[in-house]
Amino acid sequence: MVQKAKILLVDDRPENLLALEAILSALDQTLVRASSGEEALKALLTDDFAVILLDVQMPGMDGFETAAHIKRRERTRDIPIIFLTAINHGPHHTFRGYAAGAVDYISKPFDPWVLRAKVSVFVELYMKNCQLREQAALLRLQLEGGGGKAAAGGAKEPAGLLAELSARLAAVEEQAEALSKQLDDESADAAAVATAAHLERKLTGLRRALDALEPGTGSGPASVPSQN
Description:
- The protein has seven helices and five strands.
- Helix 5 (112-152) runs antiparallel to helix 6, helix 5 packs parallel to helix 7 (190-213) and helix 6 packs antiparallel against helix 7.
- The chain starts with 5 loop residues before the first strand and ends in a 15-residue tail after the last helix.
- It has a five-stranded parallel sheet, with helices on both faces.
- The protein has helices spanning 14-24, 37-46, 63-72, 91-99, 112-152, 158-185, 190-213, and strands at 6-10, 30-34, 51-55, 81-85, 104-107.
């Protein structure tokens, strides 16, 4: 059963949160509300999110200040932020949004189809990264446990485990390739394209590690590439 991604919606106006939920409900992911910057930071302490939709103008801690706090935290600094604003003060205001760490800056009223498409890209990338971490964790477990322990417990032989990991990785590689082609076709945001390329590099490193462990390669145990 695939776990759903969480999307954080931050806006001080309940009607805006309701509208965002209506737009994004078709993605069938978990939508989490926050009515202030402080409430958003509290939610980010305990949960992992695929993307954050952050209103710029809020009383107290505004969107720019909230984003600055998010980017300062090691746990949350890599979460994509899409700024939503009801006003447009020109290029300088937009630049401030990108400088605060946003991957996109959308003025209200926005096209629901465009917003949903942008959010879906980051959800896809998040899910692929989760799958990649799972594959890496399985490989590390096999390397640390050793073949003897697996056989003693009645588990699969190392060759069988490697074959299963290779098959699972191949499925993720196929999905990542399809996603990259989709981003190219749709002329997606540069940040999304860069994130997809980073994911492909991780997949390539993990594939090389698996290939080195295959019997008959003549290579010793390979180190598992870092997934940070």
